[in-house]
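Weekly modeling sync, notes
Attendees: S.R. (lead), two postdocs, one rotation student

Agenda item 3: backlog of single-chain predictions. S.R. asked that every request posted to the team notebook include the full sequence so nobody has to chase files. The rotation student volunteered to paste the first one in as an example of the format we agreed on. Action items at the bottom.

Example entry:
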Amino acid sequence: MIDLSTVLGNIAKSIVDHPEKVVVTEHAEGNEILMTLSVAEEDMGMIIGKRGKIAKAIRTVMKAVAKIDNRKVTVEIK
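Predicted structure, as returned to the notebook:
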């Protein structure tokens, strides 16, 4: 089974300027997982990207990784 929190954390840490402030929380309910990604205020623009392209790409990758284990994931960025 793949640790989705680690995957999301590693993706976020590779993008931001302050990787020590990246926090990933996970709430699982059966087959569905809600993940919340928190980053430093000044890194928010890097995570979201122009017109939300980076955020969308992160969500797409996470859905693909979760599908390997037949799970569904939703990523919130705060």
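Discussion: group reviewed the output briefly. The chain is about 40% helix and 25% strand.
Action items: rotation student to repeat for the remaining queue; S.R. to check formatting next week.
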